[in-house]
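Changelog note: in this version the structure field was regenerated for every chain. One regenerated record is shown below for reference.
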Amino acid sequence: MPLATLQAPTPAPAVRRVTVDDGSAGQRLDNFLLRELKGVPKTHIYRLIRAGEVRVNKGRAQADTRLVLGDEIRIPPVRLPERVLSKPDYVPAREFPIIFEDEHLLAINKPAGVAVHGGSGVSFGVIEQMRQARPDAKYLELVHRLDKETSGLLLIAKKRSALIALQEQFRERETGKTYAALVLGDWAENKKVLDVALLKFIGSDGERWVRAVESSNDPQADQAKRAISLVKVAQRLTGRNVDPQSTFSLLDVTIKTGRTHQIRVHLAHAGHPILGDPKYGDFEANRAMARGNLRFERMFLHAKRLRFVHPATALELELQAPLPPECEQLLLALKD
């Protein structure tokens, strides 16, 4: 008679007591719990707080309580739903080329085609992959964002204090952000400032779009937001080796505001779309370049330079990310 196989029962979740470190100091209690109790529905977390099951220094607290360094948080036992427990982890661990790193922040050179975070049909991005690659890191958060199609400098905070300080600089426009953009056509030398308001909207395809609003007569003019881009011609390229009929301009674009798709829409509105832009670009030119000998299949927009004040040392840093090899090769091919 076969012996029955006995399985040890799954241990019940236990109360945890977590001490707030400098990576979590200043954070709201609800946001802290969302990180500590991954997979637990937000509604359940708020229920635990309201019931007094979550304690801060042995006392009841509100969801918007700001945590202080050294606070002790009592986290009650929470059993995750079966569907969360059984969900496989598909996020691969990945590091990215590092431009700068210290104990407060790191700057990477993000490749084109990689989202900065999961969401909107993307299961994971840069930040999720880096957290997988650095399981001992207590804190990794995006300071700002880049479009999936854009390559270049991306800042990640390693401490909450660094995140708050850097995001404040971005909000106050105290950072210098310059992009390299290769556009179709011969950019006019005197066209140096693009001051055109932008309006976000959802298209008939359900996608997020942005359009330029230049006239006060536009029925949605009052909803548009002012956007300013400074443009400088870095190089003019005839492209005779690729297409005798085409000319190109390599631009340095410094943004004074940080609107969604700002550079892409500003340059397209000016009559010079970015090469390879799948949303606002010249689709025929993009297709020809992708199918040609060079096989250039990405958008030529690269965050090349970023200037900011270090959140801990107060020293001004200016970081630069070299152009990706495929962009360098294209520029060489477009030269006479």
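Spot check on this record: Helices lie at 29-36, 42-50, 82-85, 126-133, 160-171, 262-269, 283-291, 325-334. Confidence is low (pLDDT under 50) at residues 83-88.
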